[in-house]
Amino acid sequence: MKPGQDSISGLIFKGLYHLANFFVLIGEMTQWPFKLLIRILVKLFRLRPRVSLPKISFDFISLRIRFFLLGALTTTIIFLTYQSYLFVKALPSPDNIGKINYPLSTHIYDRNGILLYEIYRDQNRTQVSLKSLPKYVIQATIAIEDKDFYRHNGVAFVGGILRAFKESLLSKNIQGGSTITQQLVKSALLTPERTVERKVKEIILALWTERLYSKDQILEMYLNQVPYGGSSYGVEEAAKTYFGKPSKELTLDQAALLAGLPQAPSVYSPYSNPEAALKRRNDVLEAMAKQGFIDEKLKAESQNSELTVLPPKTSIIAPHFVFYTKSQLESYYGIEKVEEGGLKVTTTLDSEIQKQAETILSEELEKISYLNVTNGAILVTRPSTGEILAMVGSADYFYQPWGAFNVTTALRQPGSSIKPIMYSLALQNGYTAASIIDDSPVIFKSPGADSYQPVNYDGKFHGKVPLRYALANSYNIPAVKVLNTVGVDKFIDYGQKLGIDTWQDRSRFGLSLTLGGGEVTMVDMAEAFGTLANLGYKLPLSYSLKIQDNTGQTIKELRPFKIREMDSGVSYIMSDILSDNQARTWAFGPGSTLEIPGYKVAVKTGTTNDKRDNWTIGYTPEFLVAVWVGNNDNSPMNPYLSSGITGASPIWNRVMSYLLKNYGDGNHWYEKPDNIVEKTCFFGRKEYFIKGTENKVNCGKEVLATPTPKQ
Predict the structure, then answer these.
(1) What is the pLDDT confidence band of residue 398, given thresholds at 50, 70 and 90?
(2) Would you say 612 and 634 are in contact if contact means Cβ atoms under 8 Å apart?
(3) DSSP letters along 10-49, please?
(4) Which residues, at least 6 apart from 592, have a Cβ–Cβ distance to it below 8 Å?
(5) Which of 115, 111, 127 is nearest to 546 (CA)?
(6) What residue ranges do the domains of the chain occupy?
(7) What would the pLDDT profile of 93-137 be if each residue is shown by its tens digit?
């Protein structure tokens, strides 16, 4: 068989023959373009040969062979160029460093700028500018990480790369030798794998980065990017973690300790390996002295200083409020934006009021622990704006297993504290504060349901009583009778309009709704009572005064908006009834904890029949305070607990007294609305009426009856 026929060797010969002809053809076509390509490559990579290459004569080589060699070289260059293009195209762009490629922590502050908490996902990071840092921070970093930082173009070929190559050959592992620029791109853009391919990517990206940014920009991004141990990323968070101060206040020895951490945060951790941390800090100081950043005296003083860092801990103020805020932020901005977007949230909370509320709750619960009361909650708001000033969700957030549970947002039965909402509806539907209600036995029957017979908490019937006294003394039977007239569905609609969002399944509710038979949350009750406190205007509760993005741009600011949901005259009359200490003496006595001497305050208590929930909610034009006590497992408290004497009301009294005396504007009360008229009524006292309703009732004493014992 001859070569070139169908044998394998023949096929190989044919292939080589055609490949050679292809290379010759390419060589003929590219002899001049090839010279142009060489010139382009020289300019592109800025090659400046310092030694002239000797000219080699190829005259002895035939023209066909020269074309063959040129074609083969051109083909190889085209192939390698294309592969290099694909390699570089797949690289992440250094243009993203410091912009979108790493998460920033969200900071939550109180209204006075006190940090409450930092929210982050895995990496806790706060950006700082290079200009704000002490020179020691910059010098220490350069000294230990990259002494030629300001002299190389991103890669230290002679020192770093050759040293790393030598160590890689000896240890069979890819070693470091990275400049600060290389470390930046490795941390910000690449995976931590130790391979030749990743090292090549690192070098290319470092050279690319140096073309995009100045040295100071690169150094600033590095100091904001690299890990310093645990969840602390960037020098600002590291300074706060280890020393409890911002990075701008770091001392020389502190700066040296931090500068030594990024190379191996776990190895040099002052928590897990203090001896290694101390040695590393002193090595940094030694390097600084060798490079002339500090003198020998300062080096010695700093090396002899004690290594002192803060103990590791999670710091949080007002935790229930913080996580309530976090939940609100996430529902508005999304989880990723909150955990990685670097928001600055200035909240409505006053940490001093919060601290005082926490102390009062703890002290008062201790006093009534014998009554099987183990937990409590406090919510303080400013009715005129809806701002939340304090939120204590339980007696101790860190108590296991239920301390983290936020009672202010939980479903609890309000007892009689819901009655003012129902009675304000009644005043808009034919009733007045002087309307007579017969507190006598009654049984309500409805088709297909059990009969319902309400009773008063004191086991008595009080005869015919004005609405003012029925509400002030929290009699149950009159409240049920009024609701029966007004209508349960209308009450549900009204409650939802005022902010109660938990009465969704109407089939569950009947006349007992006015005695607290429908679960509510404290935040909803604060919003509903806030409508009473604002002369009929509803304002949604707010947790933030201002929210800024990571550039400092304000993206949301509190601008309270109010909606008229109740006649101002009705809210004025209700507030007057709830602040009438004389009217409530039948049930609570003349000197109960519902009264704050020297101040006029509207307040209502509520206790469920089985003593599982005990409430007190009260307000002035300036403040609203809601208090709950009970047990998280919903077990009943001691039957001795009496609303207005023990339980929530002493806590409420102390908190409200503190607010009025330290933050209040004197004994401030509401201006009487224009649609309110006065008329002398029962017991010779003046009663308030909505204009046009003052003649609908008989204010004579003969319509009243004295209380009678239960039969």
Answers:
(1) confident
(2) yes
(3) HHHHHHHHHHHHHHHHHHHHHHHHHHHHHHHHHHHTT---
(4) 581, 584, 644, 645, 649
(5) 111
(6) 16-47+60-89, 123-304, 358-709
(7) 666 675 545 678 899 999 999 999 988 777 778 889 999 999 999
Whether residue 63 has pLDDT greater than 80: no
The residues, any chain, with a CB within 8 Å of residue 397's CB and separated by 6 or more, are: 319, 320, 403, 404
Q: Which superfamily, per CATH, for 358-709?
A: DD-peptidase/beta-lactamase superfamily (3.40.710.10)
Burial class (CB in 10 A: 0-12, 13-18, 19+), 661: exposed
Give the three-state DSSP class for 233: strand
Q: What is the DSSP string of 528-545?
A: HHHHHHTTTEE---B-EE
What CA–CA distance (Å, rounded) separates 689 from 391? 36
Amino acid at 113: G
Furthest-apart CA atoms within the chain: distance in Å: 138
Give the residue among 412, 413, 368, 376 at the shortest CA–CA distance from 392: 376
230's tokens: 């645990």
Residue 66 burial (CB count, 10 A): 16
State the Cα–Cα distance between residues 193 and 202, nearest whole angstrom: 11
Neighbours of 243 (CB within 10 A): 18
Q: How many helices (H) and strands (E) does the chain have?
A: 22, 20
Q: 507-557 pLDDT, tens per residue?
A: 999 999 999 999 999 999 999 999 999 999 999 999 999 999 988 999 999
pLDDT in tens, 161-186: 555 554 444 444 434 458 999 988 88
Residues 123-304: name the CATH superfamily: Biosynthetic peptidoglycan transglycosylase-like (1.10.3810.10)
Q: What is the DSSP letter of 115?
A: E
Tokens of 231: 């969840």
CB-based contact 248:138 (threshold 8 Å): no
- Residue 603 to residue 619: CA distance in whole angstroms: 6
* pLDDT at site 578: 98
In this structure, are strands 232-233 and 124-125 parallel, antiparallel, or unpaired? parallel
Q: Tell me the C-alpha to C-alpha distance, in Å, between residue 356 and each of 378, 404, 652, 667.
A: 11, 19, 12, 21
Encoded tokens for 166: 């030598």
Residue 682 has what pLDDT?
80
Residue 542 pLDDT: 97
- Give me 361's structure tokens: 């709750």
From the centroid of its chain, how far is CA 98?
22
The set of residues, in sequence order, having a beta carbon less than 8 Å from that of 456 and lying 6+ positions away, is 439, 462, 475, 476, 477
Q: Using alpha carbons only, give the angle 67, 73, 79 rounded to the nearest 5 degrees.
A: 135
Distance (Å, whole) CA 468 – CA 471? 5
And the tokens for 148? 């030629």
Residue pair 383/560 in contact by the 8 Å Cβ criterion: no
Q: Which helix (H) or strand (E) holds 658?
A: helix 648-662
Q: Do the domains 123-304 and 358-709 sit in the same CATH topology, yes or no?
A: no
The Cα angle at residue 234 between residues 229 and 235, in degrees rounded to 5: 90
CB contact at 8 A, 339 and 119: yes
The phi, psi pair for 424, rounded to 5°, reads -65, -30
User: Order of strands across the sheet with 624-630?
Assistant: 387-392, 375-382, 624-630, 613-619, 602-607
